[in-house]
Amino acid sequence: MSTLFVRTLRDDPNDAEVPSHRLLVRAGYIRRAAPGIYSWLPLGLRVLRKIEAIIREEMDDMGAQELSFPALLPKEPYDATNRWTDYGPNIFRLQDRKGGDYLLGPTHEEMFTLVVKDLYSSYKDLPLSIYQIQNKYRDEARPRAGLLRGREFVMKDSYSFDIDDAGLAASYQLHRDAYIRIFDRLGFEYVIVKATSGAMGGSASEEFLAKAEVGEDTYVRCTHCDYAANVEAVTVRAPEAIAYDDAPAAHAEDTPGTPTIDTLVDHLNATYPRDDRPWAAGDTLKNVLVVLKHPDGTREPLAIGVPGDREVDQKRLEGQLEPIEVEAMDEAEFAKHPALVKGYIGPGALGEESTSGIRFLVDPRIVEGTRWVTGANVHGSHVIDMVVGRDFTPDGTIEAADVRDGDTCPNCLEGSLESARGIEMGHIFQLGRSYAQALGLQVLDENGKLVTVTMGSYGIGPSRAVAAIAEGTLDDIGLCWPRNVAPADVHVVAAGKDDAIFEFAESLVADLSEQGIEVLYDDRRGKVSPGVKFKDAELIGVPTIVTVGRGLADGTIEVRDRRTDERQEVAVGDAAAHIVSAVRG
Amino acid sequence: MSTLFVRTLRDDPNDAEVPSHRLLVRAGYIRRAAPGIYSWLPLGLRVLRKIEAIIREEMDDMGAQELSFPALLPKEPYDATNRWTDYGPNIFRLQDRKGGDYLLGPTHEEMFTLVVKDLYSSYKDLPLSIYQIQNKYRDEARPRAGLLRGREFVMKDSYSFDIDDAGLAASYQLHRDAYIRIFDRLGFEYVIVKATSGAMGGSASEEFLAKAEVGEDTYVRCTHCDYAANVEAVTVRAPEAIAYDDAPAAHAEDTPGTPTIDTLVDHLNATYPRDDRPWAAGDTLKNVLVVLKHPDGTREPLAIGVPGDREVDQKRLEGQLEPIEVEAMDEAEFAKHPALVKGYIGPGALGEESTSGIRFLVDPRIVEGTRWVTGANVHGSHVIDMVVGRDFTPDGTIEAADVRDGDTCPNCLEGSLESARGIEMGHIFQLGRSYAQALGLQVLDENGKLVTVTMGSYGIGPSRAVAAIAEGTLDDIGLCWPRNVAPADVHVVAAGKDDAIFEFAESLVADLSEQGIEVLYDDRRGKVSPGVKFKDAELIGVPTIVTVGRGLADGTIEVRDRRTDERQEVAVGDAAAHIVSAVRG
């Protein structure tokens, strides 16, 4: 500690939003270089390297091979897959001195696809899994929470290449198993959830989330079955169509002063009361207008119909439409569509075939035969008993309505959903053939016929993992690392002024080091009090803290478990053996 | 080999200029992603990682601490040191989505200085050596020779921080010793030479060059003493001033048709013969006009006087003037200076005090009292017996004249210089206080006074080392790695079709692997002939090649040294032990 390049801080950094960020800066693990861009100090780099080493071991064990692509990449391959455009402002672009276009790689699907195309030509070469651990770049609109959402970050990205879907499923399973081993070894609580597939299509996709209140991802789990999914990936089970032969004809009614669902429901119950049960928000059809911003800059209006008791969830909506971004339709844009009557918009004015021509997508619950109260496209008027399939037909469905605690599980239809928050730490993904098609990756099959290869894509963020593990394990007094990723095994504190204390501490450190134990030794003399040393040790968060102090006169030292705070007096003669067994479990 | 992600190529790649580049591509170590930007395939990555590991071990052993800075850096620190401007077109610049200016780090002096300023405040904290191994970026005008001059490359850069010059000298020596250990372990021929100090001043500076004909650097060694220097760093020993009381007055003579040194010398010998010895090129003073391009875009004319038997060496000139670039003065620029008469330019028209106002610097050999024949600034006329200090006084001296084999050694003044070419693999450098001053890095000294810290800067390029080592060790049939950096210890070739061959080879591979030997095993069956396997093994260049083939029937295998081609028949029972001892020496 007297020579280690570290200084702990008493005060929280101004820009730290979450506990892990505060503590990683205070304990001297990282420093901010620019928004979303961090420098790794020696302690932080050790944790990062340990995480990388665990990932590397498990990837190698499953037969994946490591290689390394540049971070600075030419535009052309990303043009071929359209991602140069699709990423919009989310990637860093630059030109070289000759005006050539380059980007800083956000992920490397293109480069991996091309290198396999370069080297391989036959089904006999497959399956193949290759990976790299490398800096990646995204120009996030809102970098946040320290390492949790950075603009330069470390990624392990791997890709599998198979001749057919069965092969892809097998490669996916191999990766899934390896990821489970990795996350188990990292030593923190995580959950595997269904995920959406992102920009380039594809089929099965799962995320590994660290459970964390500060997480940006919300996921749901079923109370009854083992269903778990990122809310963006929750698929509403559409009910069966309902017969509507007996349904009364749709009838427009005056509903003055009811531009919101609440005012409408109140008005309905006051003016048109029903016998069986009162009108509720869920009886109404809410039509929300948004504007889609395509990556090429074009803008497109879209109407989304959801039951009146639901909101449109922007993240779920964007999850469906990626890489398109979505924003609310503003007054100026609204004014361009005279068919739309604010507060009283109804299906009559919506749809590609309607006067407005605005595409109209609805929640999957809005199936044929269901009846709704909805806007009449006349100020102060709604239509009652509008029946889907009889009175209007939407252009399609979309998963945009919010998911709520208590919603029926779409898997078992018995349990209900409960939500929690998490940090995305891994994502595995059956990518399919889109990249191979775009870049012409084909191999000869057994019959000498060219077939397009199918791919999987698998990512873990080691730098984000540093923060997520810190976040998931820290306590009131500091960081509290799981053993496998801690910057050292043992933190030895020489607490006192006597030479005897330092002499014994040094011999203990030498002894432990010889046995392969990584020791952080607080050898500071002079003005640094034992209290300051203990506070530093607690902040830094090495799992075992050994104090060589006053007890030495009685022939004992203290061995403390940083997490449980359990403390044991150990005779100096047994010290090394005791510590080694504490470390090795 | 049946599953390794590698394919060897029979043909040389089109864009490969040097043997190492050709072979690294053909043997499946690297692939080009863009000009000067390469992807590392598994074999190449292994060599790179081994080099990095050796560097890391030696840096850690000397007490340097590893950290890691971003590659994507904000402009501000580089503005403070002026390098944002000084680098001119040689760095990659970009803007983020908010218009903030960033660069891809070419070296990290600024970031290291700032992090020490952030953490440290007292002389007690020093000395400190910190380092990183990381991707760096330079937008080279002419990337060439594969990994030898890339635009994205790996660098180990370290920096030392000391309170005073003695401390810096000690830190420099520690690094120098560590570098010697590193380069010894890498296992190839290198030489340590004096070097120039680059953009930001500084004092002592040495380079570690790999001896290589394809190298971009030319260095000289003395035949007599241990002097060795990059030609850019050779300092001519200025002779003593000569008394000129007896010198005849300068006299202009007609020398029609003598715009070149050769025509002038012929004319002098024909028209003004001397008694003691004939006129030679070395008696004339050649005045060369160039234009300096400052990083901020301004242009400045400069006149350089060298003895007529020497040329102005652009690299030596630029080495003195860095970051200024130099180009020849073109006709248009020349025409702006009416005082200059092409082919007959003399000191009378040069110098800051002259009519032209052009700064006039001369070779250090042109000392006071020396006599020269030089242009009279009149067409067809030269002045003879122009004496320095009497007839003209230059504005200063500059090391711009070329260095030649046979030149007197400037160190011992006895031996002569011999030149050779090399590849710069390491550079150690007493940087001094310029960065600390620019960025305000001060600490309190023993008396509580703020003093500016002095720094050293030390770099090795691991990615360039891969190519330089390949270049220095390859032979006619392929790569030929030194043991410490080879992608494997042993290449086992199963040569034949019998199951017995594969069975024994597999058991041998398992046996060797268990003993910690890294084996590349050519297990390919089917159409791959033994000849193809041998060619691949020779190309890939693992130091020991073991053939399990026809000899197996007689109970022997062949162990071959890739470098010496020495082959030994070894009894199968002794095979593993024999190979282990061959590997471990």
From TrEMBL, chains A, B:
Name under which the protein is recorded: Proline--tRNA ligase
Catalytic activity field: tRNA(Pro) + L-proline + ATP = L-prolyl-tRNA(Pro) + AMP + diphosphate
HAMAP family: Pro_tRNA_synth_type1 (MF_01569)
Any one GO biological process: prolyl-tRNA aminoacylation
Family the UniProt entry places it in: Belongs to the class-II aminoacyl-tRNA synthetase family. ProS type 1 subfamily.
GO molecular function, one term: aminoacyl-tRNA deacylase activity
PANTHER family the record matches: MITOCHONDRIAL RIBOSOME PROTEIN L39/PROLYL-TRNA LIGASE FAMILY MEMBER, PROLINE--TRNA LIGASE
Quaternary structure and partners: Homodimer.
UniProt cross-references to PROSITE patterns, sorted A to Z: AA_TRNA_LIGASE_II
Annotated domain remarks: Consists of three domains: the N-terminal catalytic domain, the editing domain and the C-terminal anticodon-binding domain.
EC number: 6.1.1.15
Function: Catalyzes the attachment of proline to tRNA(Pro) in a two-step reaction: proline is first activated by ATP to form Pro-AMP and then transferred to the acceptor end of tRNA(Pro). As ProRS can inadvertently accommodate and process non-cognate amino acids such as alanine and cysteine, to avoid such errors it has two additional distinct editing activities against alanine. One activity is designated as 'pretransfer' editing and involves the tRNA(Pro)-independent hydrolysis of activated Ala-AMP.
Locations listed in the record: Cytoplasm
Highest taxon above the source species: Bacteria
Keywords: Aminoacyl-tRNA synthetase, ATP-binding, Cytoplasm, Ligase, Nucleotide-binding, Protein biosynthesis
InterPro entries, per the entry: aa-tRNA-synt_IIb, aa-tRNA-synth_II, aa-tRNA-synth_II/BPL/LPL, Anticodon-bd, Anticodon-bd_dom_sf, Pro-tRNA-ligase_IIa, Pro-tRNA-synth_IIa_bac-type, Pro-tRNA-Synthase_IIa_type1
Record domain Aminoacyl-transfer RNA synthetases class-II family profile: where: 31-482
Cited CDD domains: ProRS_anticodon_short, ProRS_core_prok
Pfam families per the UniProt record, alphabetical: HGTP_anticodon, tRNA-synt_2b, tRNA_edit
GO cellular component: cytosol
